[in-house]
Design a protein that fits this description.
With 72 residues, the protein is mainly β. It has strands at 18-27, 34-40, 46-50. A 3-stranded antiparallel β-sheet has the order 1-2-3, with no helix packed on it.
Length: 72
């Protein structure tokens, strides 16, 4: 994990190797949250997540994490 970066800052990497690559203007499915795009450092898959979930996300493709939120 990178020290000094908040979870919604570009480049933040959580302990599961998920990197925050960009934010969107899409509403998330958690209270007052927006969708952020995460990329897995292992398989490079990109998927959407609520800002409040970034710190704990696991890749839905290679780590058995929950499906990502729509990016459309």
């Amino acid at each position: 994990m990178r020290k000094g970066k908040g979870t919604t800052e570009l480049g933040f990497t959580n302990r599961n190797g998920q990197v925050m690559v960009r934010h969107t203007d899409l509403l998330g499915n958690d209270h007052n949250q927006y969708v952020y795009v995460l990329r897995c450092n292992r398989c490079r898959r990109e998927y959407g997540a609520n800002g409040s979930d970034i710190w704990l996300r696991k890749c839905p493709n290679c780590q058995g994490g929950a499906e990502g939120l729509s990016l459309e």
